[in-house]
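Contributing: when you submit paired examples, paste them exactly as shown. First protein:
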Amino acid sequence: MVKEKYNITGMSCAACSAKVERVVGKLEGVENVSVNLLTNSMQVEYKEDKLSSNDIIKNIADAGYGASLATDTKQKKEEKSIKKTNNDAIASMKFRLKVSIVFLVILMYFSMGSMIGLPLPKILSGEGNPVGFALTQLLLVLPVMYVNRKYYISGFKSLFHLSPNMDTLIAIGTVAAFTYGVIAIYVMGYALNNADMHTVTEYRMNLYFESVSMILTLITLGKFFETGSKARTTDAISKLIDLSPKRANVLRDGVEENILTEDVVVGDIVIVRPGESIPVDGMIIEGSTSVDESAITGESIPVQKEKGDKLIAATINKNGSVRIKATEVGEDTAISRIIALVEEASSSKAPIAKMADKVAGVFVPVVMGIALITFIVWLALGYDFSFALNCAIAVLVISCPCSLGLATPVAIMVGTGKGAENGILIKSADALETTHSIDTVVLDKTGTVTEGKPVVTDILAFDIDENEFLKLAAGVESASEHPLAEAIVEKAKEKNLEIVSPTEFQAISGRGIVASVSGSKIIAGNEQAIKEQYGNSENFTEVFKKGNELAAQGKTPMYFTKDGKLLGIIAVADTIKKDSKEAIQALKNRNIDVVLLTGDHKNTAMAIAKEAGIKKVIAEVLPTDKEEHIRELMEAGHKVAMVGDGINDSPALARADVGIAIGAGTDIAIESADIVLMHSSLKDVATAIDLSKAVIRNIKQNLFWAFFYNSIGIPLAAGVFYLSLGWKLSPMFGAAAMGMSSVCVVSNALRLRAFKPKEVKKNNIENDEIELIENKRKEDKNMTTIINVNGMMCEHCKATVEKVTRGVEGVSNSLVNLDAKNVTIEHSADTDLEKVKKAITDAGYEVV
C-alpha cells in the first residue's frame, strides 16, 4: 500500500474537490482518497501493483484539473510552498482587484452618473449617442473580464468535462449578461435606423455591462479577503518551519564549513555555539550545555546536556559550545516529522465534511437547473426577457458554493494548527472529530500517570540523623548501577550531601549489596538479604512489618544495616507526575470516566489510583490483553481514548476510538496513536478534548450558515417573493452576498485561533471507593504457568525476568508480580519449561 500527497490545481469550490475525489476514488486499487479545497491538495492510499501516480494524474487531468506529486519536503521548499504561494496568491488577487475597481468606477460613472446629475459629454450620453454610450461601457467591461479570465477558463473547462463548479456559475451568469448587452447594441443600431426610439430607450436602460463588472469585482473582493484569511490558517505550520535553522556549521576534513541544513548528512560533526539553534537531531560527542527545549517539549526550564545525550533540532543551545554527531537529518528530524504530521492532518478530511461534499457534488447542476426554470417561468408569466434574465443571473451568482466548501477545511486547519501550538499533534481530521465524543479515558500507569522512573519516597532513620543516614546509603549505592541505587544517589545529590564511595563492594544478585565503609560492614538490600545475613532475628520483626506497610502502598523498601545494627529503611517508588491529579480531575469535571489499565500488581495499581483520584482499576493485565479490555469497553457502547507511552500499549492505542501517545514515549507508541502529546502531560488530554469540541462546534456553525444562506438566497434571487412582497435581488447584490458569505465562514473559523487551554483547577481529589475491575483474560489454546522466583525486588528486576522468559521459544508472554515474587508465563503446550527456568537462573535469580 502506497500513501502519496498531490498538489491539485484548478479547484475553486466544494464541487471541484468532490469531483476530483469521485474521479480518483473510482480507480481500481484506490483504498482511500481525501481532497482538501483549502490546501489544494489530495492524499491517496492505493495498491502499487494496480495503479501508478501517473495514472492518477492522468485521470485528474481528464476531469479538467491539474495534479502533481508533492514529493519535495525539504524545509526551504516547504517554506516556499506555504509562504510564497500564499503571498503570490494575495499579490495576484490584489492586482486583479485594483484593475477591476478602477474600471468599475469609470464604468459606473458612464452608466449611472447621469442619474445623480454627474456631467457627461453629450457624445457619450445615453440620450445623445445611445450606441456610443453602450460601446463605451463594452470597452470598459472588457479589461475587468480579462483580468478575471480565471473564472471563465476554469468555469467552461469544468462545464466541458461535465463537472460544473462555482466558476461555471459565475462564467455563465456574466457571459449571459455580457452577450445580452452586445445583442442590445445591435438592436439599438437597427432601431435607430428605423427611428424606433422606444426600443432604443428600453435597451439602453438594460445593458447589464455594469452588472458584469460589478459581479466580477465583488466576487474578486470576496476572494481577496478569503485568500488572506486562508493564508492566516497556515500560520501554525509556518511558525513550525521558522523554528528550524536554515544553516549549520559542519566540521569536514578538519575544516569548519557553513552549509545549508538540508545538506547535512548522517554522521556529520556539527558545531553548535551558545545562542544558536540546533540544526539536526544528534548526539553530543564533545562539550556540555543547557538546552531550551520549550519549542518541542514545552519544558520551560533549560535541560542540562552532557556527552552522550541526544539533542533535538530546532531547540536552542543556551550557554555551552558543543559538537554533535548528526543522527537524523532532513525530513527524519523530530521537527520535520511534526511539520509533516500537522500538514497531513490539515489536509485530511473529517467525516462531517463528507455531507458537505455530497451536497456540493450535485449542488451546481441543480442550481443551473433552478436558474433555467426561473428564466422560463418569468417568461411564461409574461415578463420581458430582461427581467427573466436578471433573475436567472442572480440565481447563478448567489448560489456559488464557496462557503460550503470552506466550512470544514478551514476549521480543521486552524484547529490542528492551534493544537500544534499547544504541543498537541493531531494526526488526522478524523481523530480531531472523534475526540469530542470521548466519554471514557483509559490510562496506562508507568510513564503516563507516573514519572516512569523510581524516586525516593520515604526515609526512616533509626538512632541516626536522617541526612547522615542518606549520605551513608548513597555512598554505598554509588557503586551500583541498579535503578533503585540511582534513585537514592539522586536524592542525596538533591540535598547537596557529600557522597563517599565504599572501599569494598560486592553485589548480591537479586538481593542487595555488601560493602565496607570506614571499616564497618554495611548491608543494603531487601528483606531476604537481611534475613540471609542475620537470620530471622526478632529484632527486625517490627521493622519488616513497617517495610511491608510501605510495600502495600506500591513502594519498594530497602533496609540498611551497619555491623548488624539496623540503620533505617529507604522506600523507592515510581511516583505519580505532579500534574496527574489535576489532569484526572479535569477529565472527571467533563463527565469522562477514567480507568487505570496496568500490568502491575493490584496493590501497586490501587495505591497509585487512590493517590491520583482514579475510581476504576484494571490491574495485572498482560500486554496482549490490554487491547482486549479496550475492545470490551467499546463494545459496551463507550467512546474510548487510550493514553499510553510504551511498546506494549501500541495494540491498545490502535484499537481505541482515539489513541493518545505521550510524546516522551516510544516511536512505536507514537506511530500507533492518533494524537501525540509533546509535553508529556496528562493535562493535554483534556485540552485535546476541549479543542475537538471547539472545532466541531465551529464546523457545525459554518455548515449551518452556508446551508441557511443558500436556502434563503436562492428563492430571493429567483423572485419567489416578488409577486407577493415585491422583493427582488439584483445580480450585483447577489455577488456581494456570495463573496461575503465565504469571508464570514473563514472569519468564523479563524476565531479558533483565540482558543486557549482551560486552567486545570487544583480541586481536592475525591476519595471515593476504588473499583477493582476483574481482569478477564481471554481463553485460548495457550497454557499458563506460574513460577516462583526469589531475588526480584524492583522494576528493573521485573523487566529483566519478563525479557528473558519471553525470549524462550514457545513463550508468548510473561508478567512478573513483584509482591508475590512470581512470574506468570503464557506458553504453548510443548514449551520446554526447563529452558524457562534456566533463563531465569542465568539472569541471576533463583527459581523456587
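Second protein:
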Amino acid sequence: MRIIKSYLIIGFLALVTSSYAQKVFTEKDIRIIPKPTQTLIKTGVFEFNKDTKFVTGNDFQKDAANALASKFAIAAGWKPETTTKAPASNFVQFKTDPNLKNEAYILDVNPNSIVISAKGNTGFLYGLESIRQLLPEAIESQYAVTSAKWQIPSLTINDEPRFKWRGLMLDLSRHFFDKNYILTTIDRLAMHKMNVLHLHLVDDQGWRIEIKKYPKLTEVGAWRVDQENLSWNARLAVSADQKGTYGGFFTQDELREIVKYAATKGIEVIPEIEMPAHVSSAIASYPELACFDQKIGVPSGGVWPLTDIYCAGKETTFEFLQNVIDEVITIFPSKYIHIGGDEATKTNWAKCPHCQKRIKDEHLKSVDELQSYFVKRMEKYINSKGKKVIGWDEILEGGLAPDATVMSWRGTKGGIEAADQGHDVIMTPETPCYFNFYQGPQNEEPLAFDAYNPLNEVYKFDPVVPTMTPQEAGHVLGGQANLWAEHISGPKDSEYMIFPRLAALSETLWSPKEKRNWNDFTTRLFSMFKRYDYQGLNYAKSAYLVTASSTADLANKQVKVELKNEFPNPDIRYVLGDKNIDHHAVKYTSPIEFKETTVLKASLFQDEKPVGKTFTDTIIFHKAVAHKVKYLTPFNQSYKGDANTMVNTIRGSKNFHDGQWQAWLVNDMELVIDFEKQESIEQVIVGTLESQGAGVNFPIEVKVLVSNDGIKYKQVGKITRPYAVNAVPELKDFKISFQKQNARFVKVIAGNLKKSPKGESSWLFVDEILVN
C-alpha cells in the first residue's frame, strides 16, 4: 500500500513538474517578423535539448541546420547533431515538396518532431528562421543562458512571400564598408527573410570594385581627399593633383566570397555600375572617358549638378564599359546588372562635338534621346551576356530600353509609367524607402538627410499603387530600402539607420496585405528588439521617443503642448519642473497648457516603467512674448514662420522646415520689438541654427540696441565670432547681457556670413528673440 501511494505521489509530482515546465502558447506568443501567411496553434510543445537531431538530406540543409545548432551551442551549452536518418522522436527534419512555390515553406511542429517542407533551399532557410523566432530571444545570446526553456509551440505555419523582390541597397561609394560588415548584414537580411542585397559600387565619391583591365579605377578612383570633418555638402572642390587617402575597394575575390556566402542565405547580390552620370571617380581615373578629357579629382563630398559624365559620343566609352561589364559578370551570377542612369546633367553633351555627331548619325532629336541610346546600347550588350538591366526611373527619359526593369525612386510615378509600358518594376520611393532620412525628431537623432521616414510610415508602404490595373500590378516585382551613405561614417551608424525600419519593410514585402496590422506589429517588435539587444546590434530606439507640437495663444499669453508617440495608444506620462520621471508621473490625456516658464519632461511607459529617452523642453515666457515685431530687413518668403514667430515662446528644431524659423539669404537680420511701454530689461537672446551642409550658418555678429522713441538708438551689447567649421547641425542661443535699463524698443541685428568658404550664398536662421 505504501508503495502504491509512493508511486501516486511520484506520478503526481511528475505531472505537476511537467505542467510547470511546459508553457501554454497563445497567438500573442507568436512574434515572428515578418508575419506568416497562415498559423494554426496546436496543443503541446517541442523542446530542444542536447539529444535533438537535425535530419538533413544534402550539404546545404546540413549547413543551414548547423547555423541554428551553433546558436544552441553558445546560448544553451550544447549543440544538436545532424544526421541523415530520423530517430523515433526529438528531431527536426527537412522534407522536399515539389508542389510548393520556390520560397514557400510549411512548418509542422509537434511534441515529438518538427518537419520543414519546402521545394528548395530558400524555403528550408525561411522555415529555420521561423523556428529561430519561435524560440526564446535568448537564442541570440553571445553567452550561456541557464534559465531559458528551449521550447516552441506545437503549430502549423503555411507561409510564402507576397513579393519576389525584397531588397536592401547599401551605398559603398559615399562610405566604404568592409567585407565583414557586408557578411553580417547578409545574416541580418536572412533573419528578416529579405532576399536581395543591392551593392552601390560606383559613384562620384568612390569606385569600389577591382577591375583588372583598368587598375587606375581603384588606384585613383577608390580614394578621395579626407574632408570628413566637414559637412557633406560643405566640402571643398579638389583638383586632380591632390592625392586621396580616404576610401577603399573590394578585390574580385572578396566580392566572390560575399556572393557565395549570400547564396547560402538565400540572398542574391545585385551589383550597380553607374552610367552615364555619378562617375566622377572613373573620370578622375581616366579623363578620356569625359567629353573634353577634363582632369578632375575624386570629389570629397556633394556634387551638383552632375556635369562630369561619360561621353556618349566616343566609341572608347562603350569599349570601356563593356570591358568593365565583362569582369563584373564573372563575379556576380545575379540575373540583373543595375546600371544607375539617374541625375545626368547633359550640358557637356550639348556642346561636345563627339556627342553631337552621335546625335546626327543616329538620327536622334535631343540629349535625352542620346541618353536613351546610351542605355539601350548598354542594355543590348548586357542582354547578350545573359543578364537583364535595372535602372533608376530616369532611364524612362527619351524612351525606355526594351527589356529594362525600372527601380522607381522619385515617388511611384516612374514605376506606374514603366508598368503601363509592360516593364517590370521595383518600387523604392524616397518616402518611405530611403533609410538615410531621419526616423525621429532631428534634435534627438544622429545626422541624416533632411527628410523624415519614421518606422510607422515604412510599415504603411505598399509597392502596388491602388490606381494600378491588375496587369500593371503584375509587373511589380517588389520593393527595396536604400541607405545612401553621405552621413554614415561606420557600421554602427549604418545599423542604426537600417534597424528596426528593415523589420517593418520585411513585413510589408512578405506578409499578405490583409494580415498587416500596425498594432499587432508593434507588439511583436518588442521581441525583435530583445533579439537585437542580444546580438549587440545598434538599432534605433526612435520609435520610443515622445515628440511635442506646440501652439501659441498669444492673445491670452498661453501655450498648449501636445505629446505624441509612434506606437498605438501610447502610455505617455509627464512631470513639470525638477521632478523625476517615475511611477508618480501624470498620464498624458490631452494638450498641456502653460502660462509661465516651465520645464516639461515626458516619456513613454511600458510595464509601469519609462522606456527610451526622456523628452525635455523648457517653455520660456519672456518679456517680448506677444509684442509687435517690425522687420527692417524682410525675411525670405521660403522660411517665413508666422506673424509671431520671433516672440511666441515656441522654439525651432534642427529641422528647419518645421515652420518655427524665419530666414535671411545673404542679408542681415534687422528687426525691432516694440513693448508699447517702457520695460526694464538686461538680456537679449537670439536663437539660431547652423547646418553648414544646407548652407545655413550662425551669425558672425549680433548687436542689440535700445530706444525709448523708436528713432534714436544706443548700442548696449555686441557679440562677434569668426566662422568655424561645424560638421553637424547645431542649435545655439547667442546671449547678450547688459546693465539693466528701461526701454520701449529693442533693435536686434544679426550679421549674415554672406558667402560660405565654398563660395555659396549663406542663410541665416532665427527662431526666437527672448528679452529678459
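If you have annotations for the second protein, write them as plain sentences, like these:
Confidence is low (pLDDT under 50) at residues 1-20.
Residues 707 and 713 are 5 Å apart (CA to CA).
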